[in-house]
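Researcher: First entry.
Model:
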Amino acid sequence: MATDPKAEHASSTLQSPVTNAGPQGPVPTAPLPLPNETASSEAAPASPPARPTRAEWLRIAIFGIPYAAFFLVGVPTSLFPASWNLTAINLAIDTVLLIVVLAFFAREFFPAFTYLRTHPIRKIAILFGLWFLVVIVQASVRLALYGLNPPIAANQQGVMNALFDGTLGLVFSFFVTVGVPVIEEVFYRHILIGKLSAYTPTWLVASISAALFAYMHSHQWQDFFSYLPLSIVLTLVYVKSGKNVAYSWLFHALNNTIMVVLMFAMQGVLQNA
């Protein structure tokens, strides 16, 4: 029975691997990989974070140096009018810092909220669970340090005094729940961990960040251990979310908002008692 040479050639082309012509005749070559097939079964290692550019270092310095100075030497009350109380001075400083942070880091901060596009309910529920865990650990630490009648931490007492300072207290409540978490998360997490991890291991800068954050909120050595659980969880939330500053801000804002609501509720109960 006669066969069509063209059909035989097409059939052999489909059944045979691609060949290259060489001096000794056709040389078989490996079949082409499928579109989704990788050359190696091992995943490529994650690339290290990019080092900040000179422009980024300039922004970090303009924000970070004044903030670190306030952190080290305290609020320079002598630079403000004598008629201003401590709440007004804190509001002025926080306002300037928030403006600088948003001007320099808004392009990095706001796009990070895309992290919540997938499984938002689960991710927010995790934050509530972590908050309850922090409260339990903090209460246990304070009981171990002070006994059954622990005093109010000096930092927390200062916040309470500012919150109940009339109209200024209402403005201050916004900064405590929204603005201050932005400032602190950009400095302690986004810069100290996110930026500096390009030069040193993440665990090292994360440990330094957690210790500095707890120390910044401390007025005596017992306060350091009281704030350390919150600081550690904030650091873990940031690192485990892929160094997402919006997610750590959300946990920070959640913690501060609950605390402010509880403070106002307690004040109302005491006034009606």
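Researcher: Second entry.
Model:
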Amino acid sequence: MLDGVGLTHTNGFTALSEVTVAATPGERIAVIGPSGAGKTTLLRLLGAALRPTAGTVSLLAANPWEMSAPELRQLRTRIGVVHQAPPLPPRQRVVTAVLAGRLGQWPLWKSLASLGYPLAIAGAQAALAQLDLGDRLFDRCDRISGGQLQRVGVARVLYQRPELILADEPVSALDPTLAQQAVRVLLRDAEARGATLVASLHAVDLALAEFPRIVGVRDGHIAFDLPSAQVTESLLHELYAAEGAELPTLANEPRFTAHAVDAEAPLPGARCR
């Protein structure tokens, strides 16, 4: 997917350098590392939201940066993004937010009609029900909690059914039980459809317990890329050395607040309208 990829911003800051990561279809990978390590940048490159300044990118058997603009838009409809802070308009209904996952796949008439009146309510409700949100179908997005918003973002990707799922800290606002539930829903969906899932997670224990492959990122480089059973405590402490002696886990991870959601810059992707 990424071969020798680097990204240096116009201000001279290098966010990623010499990153090589490959994934087979249907693989499930957790990306871990301290804050500022480059995890979100890595996912944005994988989603063709950022163009690298070095190396090559291959997504779903195509180089996105050799495509025409219409071809790139079509490629992005095959990629589902779960944002840490879902970019949901506050007055939008939850059902419309979920159905927006397929706007890029539908013909124009159906997309426009769905914005006025939801056309596939049963599908949206089925996706929400997997996350215990079936009763929130017609709630406004500004009337539900930050954790519920994150689960709506997961439901949107479930309804979209993409070939590649990129989840950027998708459960940071959830308590440990709900976080584990949401991650397992994503994993089951990806496995059932043969989709590739790459998720950045701050909670090390959640990543190790649920994902077969772990990629550790530190200071813009790949620190390790190993099966979860081979990730040792010493590797983890080295990875998180700058954050102190205690590893981030579901039990001690600070919850993502509504204030933090407002401040977070989300991954570009198909926005709800």
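Model: Note on the second entry: The longest strand covers residues 14-21.
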